[in-house]
Known about the structure:
Blueprint: H1 3-6, E1 13-17, E2 22-29, H2 37-55, H3 58-62, E3 70-77, H4 83-97, E4 101-107
Helix pairs in contact: 2-4
Amino acid sequence: MHASLSNPEKLDLITFDPNSHEYVLIISTMNTWEDSKEEQERLLQKINNYTNFLADGQLLQHFPQAKGIAVRIQIDSMEIIPPNANQLVMQAQKLLMERGINLCINLISK
């Protein structure tokens, strides 16, 4: 299991992308995917935790300069996300877009 997913309450990284002018909350998943039910549940917990962090105004508490700036949640992975986890991400993307939050997958080269 990914170390990041074993602790879904922890935010892995928050950064600012000057190219897209967005704050980026990164979920770092650099291990091999199992595509197990448990892994999918933890990924969903992680996405929900990041969403709650934004909804509760915690990003603005820590980064007041983020007011009015777009936000995205980004899943960094060294391999293609397996089908079941990818389906979960696609469903989450639709729901988050309704809140004005982008969710994307970023494949990192090995």
